[in-house]
Amino acid sequence: MSYRVPLGIVLLIVGLWWSLPGRKPEPTPAPPAPGEFSLRGKFTGPSAADDAAVLSALCGELASIIEWDGMLEEPRLKSGVAFDELRVAAREARCRGESIGQRQPLVRDAIQHYLDAAVGTSGGPITPEGRAKWIAAYRHLGRVCGDAAK
Asked: How confident is the model over 47-94, as pLDDT tens digits?
């Protein structure tokens, strides 16, 4: 019976030591695959995480709006220009006129290049396939911005 008390104390000490901060490694996100689009490390400055989170939410919402609009009997968003006007209006409303692109020029440029490659630069009429590309592109941007916010 006398060996149970020291064993309990030893287990308690080991448990406390194991629970100390820094003892357990924090999981880290996996690095992007080679050639995969990522915005990690492109958000900088004191507002970096907040900017990434705002863009993540904004891009996710844009994808949902474009998708919902496409399910209407008569969609309102019918062109690349309309999608861009929606993006500008949503950003201005959400950010109250502040430009994350001015604060985060590396992100702005990377997103522009990504969208140009993913959906093209035409402001013309949108086909159902083109709409699907825009939805997928904005959803992907939402994910990579969310990953960058972590």
From this structure: 999 999 999 999 999 999 999 999 999 999 999 999 989 988 888 888
DSSP-derived secondary structure for 75-130: -S--BHHHHHHHHHHHHHHHHTT--HHHH-HHHHHHHHHHHHHHH-S--SB--HHH
SS (H, E, C) 35-55: CCCCCCCCCCCCCHHHHHHHH
Among the listed ranges 5-9, 75-79, 120-124, which one has the minimum average pLDDT value? Answer: 5-9
Listed residue (93, 106, 4) closest to 54, CA to CA? 93
Domain limits, the chain: 48-95+102-149
